[in-house]
Amino acid sequence: MQRRIVVAHPDFGRKLKELREKHGLSLRRLGGMIHCSHGHLWDLESGIKRPSLSVAVLLDQALEAGGQLSAMVSEVSADTGRRGVAVEQAMVAMPSGLEFAPDWRHGIDVAVDLWRGDMQRRNLLRQVGFSATASCQRRCDG
């Protein structure tokens, strides 16, 4: 099963708020119309969350936007990474939800160094074990 991620145009929230205010609707009223919480709509308007394609379609219908909002949202494959130019621009502007600490590379380097140390110790123990076995066999055979 292919994993999908949602990509929204950076101006989605601004456009949503503009259309909502144009129709004189509060967040609560619009939320009631599309069966969505007003808090979630606020998160969409402020850019904290990205809308699903189905929510964008519902918003289009409720605000009589003629597909303006749903055109700003697309789903792309998370597995193949195939994205268009417009999607790349949207990805740069929108927070992805993944944030790495500034020193994340250091953490990876530490983990790799620990793994390498474990592998070196393992190889050393194998060599010592084989040497001891060979030495023991010489004594026993001799």
Automatic annotation (TrEMBL):
Matches recorded under SMART domains: HTH_XRE
Domain HTH cro/C1-type: 16-69
UniProt-listed Pfam families: HTH_31
GO molecular function: DNA binding
Alphabetical list of PROSITE patterns matching this protein: HTH_CROC1
Entries under Gene3D superfamilies matching the protein: lambda repressor-like DNA-binding domains
InterPro entries membership: Cro/C1-type_HTH, Lambda_DNA-bd_dom_sf
UniProt protein name: HTH cro/C1-type domain-containing protein
Source species: Paractinoplanes ferrugineus
